[in-house]
Amino acid sequence: MKKPFKISMRGRHILEGYSFISIWVVGFLLFLAVPLGRSLYFAFHRLEITANGLKASPNGFQFFRDAFTVDVGFTPALIHTMTNLVLHVPLILVFAMFSALLLNRPFVGRLAFRSIFFLPVIIASGTVLQKLLDQGAATLPIFLQYDVANKLNDYVPTAVLLPLLSMMDSLTLVIWDSGVQILIFLAALQSVPVSLYEAADMDGATPWEKFWKITLPIITPMILVNTLFSIVNSFTEIRNSVMQYIQMIAFEKNNYGYASALGWIYFVIIFLIILIVLYIFRNAGSNNYNREER
Amino acid sequence: MLGEWKETVRMFPMRKARSFGSHLFHYAILLSLSFVFVYPMLYIVSQSLMQVNDIADATVQWIPKELNFEHFRFAFDRLHFWRSFMNSTVTSLGAALLQIISCAIVGYGFARYRFPGYNVLLGLVLFTFLVPPQTIVVPLYMFFSDLGWINTYLPFLVPSAFGHGLRGALFVLIFIQFFRGLPYQLEESARIDGAGAFRTFRSIMLPLAGPAMLVVFLFSVVWHWNDVFEPNLYFMVSEHYNLPQSLMILNAQAEQQLSEAQKMMGGAMLTSVPTGYNRNMAGALLTILPLVILYGYAQRYFVESLERTGIAGE
């Protein structure tokens, strides 16, 4: 029997590849590309709800100008979100790395500790975390019980103490937020070849040197992954003030066009930040020494 | 397996060298950190059991004088527990199962095939991960509402079936990494034996993807379970609320009680409903209990699996 048309091995390979990812592409068009296009359109149009549905009239860059000049709510929310991001992401990364190093050492009860470190991902997120925050349970009682703030006030000027204390307050949040990152770092630490440490031991390297010269360079790509994950996580969090603000504009004030414009401003800023991060990590790939071989 | 083997090799010279003191120090740090991690759980459990006289009693810090489940009965009632539980279960389990299948298929396609536009499409997957839901929420809402999907499970299930939905892009990336780490020989022999591409995927590669599937499943269930942003958009009536949404209202009810109480007191300032917080915590415990049980059951395999998913680019 002769096939109606013949395709080469290569053609078949390509066709099979496309068929595997086709569902994703369809989903991308339906649930991302089209909504993204429409929201861009909304951002430049004034929308009115009429009897025949939505009526759009061109509005130019008006919404974008308004966001920064007229709207008194957006800029503070944006600044708040950005400050949180800049403060929290490095803290999360450092803490996650520290915890991963602790957990990576061989000791009795490792698995139990690992499960505990992931617990906040389940408990302290979403509404439950909101509840805990409402009740002031997101601060460790140690700081309140022993009246640390007042005692320190005798030695440290208030102007320095207050930001420091608010950072201590958010420390619990940082710790609870780093569950996923700890696990990613742990997996990364497991992938460092033991032979390198052995060689370093032979040469008499200290643990400190081994960390900076072996561990850190090898897991740099994973630091990038974790940075991106933390940034996206912090940007899409429900407690994030910009998120809440946009939702309020869209679904309480029903100002769809303006909400879309704000969404785009937010997106562009995220994108810029991620580009900066990628630029900082631009050499991370080169440390990826013959990874393919293993 | 390989991880364990490495472990034993690594610990051998180190264990000799390490002194008792450093061991103790190590445990001290771990234990104190663990306290921070377990603290919310302890807090929720302890608060949810406390009665009015326990709160007033200065000698009671963590453990209430008597065991009383009254707050749980209240929260169970007000959360409409079984209804909310069913809504939560259908959305998170349904979406998670669909995401496992769809993201595995797509991840496999990206891991094993090269085709024109490969880099662009892979870039789009990353791009999808970065787009904040806020940017597209309005058109997406209109789209679903035009289809008449508001107050149904479809806005959660259908995107998941296409490899999207909550953090779908991340799951695709996890599967790409995982399948890249598997040896080619398995598929080659299957192909030589005459299995087609999909047959090879279904009967050879998918059964091997257990660790990645477990990780994706657990992440997906947890994130869907705790998510309130999308449910707040697509579940407009209380019959469809999931557990976290109902927990939100539980709070609103407590607030209302507070303001009513204030009115009755003739505007005297009451700082809180005496047991409002404790009821909230009982509700919070009920909300996360299914997840805690699931995690308690799966955590052993989960942490091991995560190391084997090649998430770290091994």
UniProtKB/TrEMBL annotation, chain A:
The ABC transmembrane type-1 domain, residue ranges: 78-277
PROSITE patterns in the record: ABC_TM1
InterPro entries: MetI-like, MetI-like_sf, UgpAE/MalFG_permease
Main subcellular localisation: membrane
A Pfam family recorded for this sequence: BPD_transp_1
Membrane-spanning parts: 21-44, 85-104, 111-129, 155-175, 182-200, 212-235, 256-281
GO BP term (any one): transmembrane transport
GO terms under cellular component: plasma membrane
Bilayer disposition of the protein: Multi-pass membrane protein
Localization, UniProt: Cell membrane
UniProt keyword list: Cell membrane, Membrane, Transmembrane, Transmembrane helix, Transport
Recorded family membership: Belongs to the binding-protein-dependent transport system permease family.
Name of this protein: Sugar ABC transporter permease
Species this protein is from: Cohnella pontilimi
From TrEMBL, chain B:
Keyword Ligase: no
Record localization: Cell membrane
Topology with respect to the bilayer: Multi-pass membrane protein
Swiss-Prot/TrEMBL GO biological process terms: transmembrane transport
Residue intervals of the ABC transmembrane type-1 domain: 85-298
CDD domains, A to Z: TM_PBP2
SUPFAM superfamilies reported in the protein's UniProt record: MetI-like
Keyword field contains Magnesium: no
InterPro entries: MetI-like, MetI-like_sf
Keywords: Cell membrane, Membrane, Transmembrane, Transmembrane helix, Transport
A GO CC annotation given for this chain: plasma membrane
Transmembrane segments: 24-45, 90-111, 118-144, 164-183, 204-225, 281-298
Homology family: Belongs to the binding-protein-dependent transport system permease family.
Stated name of the protein: Carbohydrate ABC transporter permease
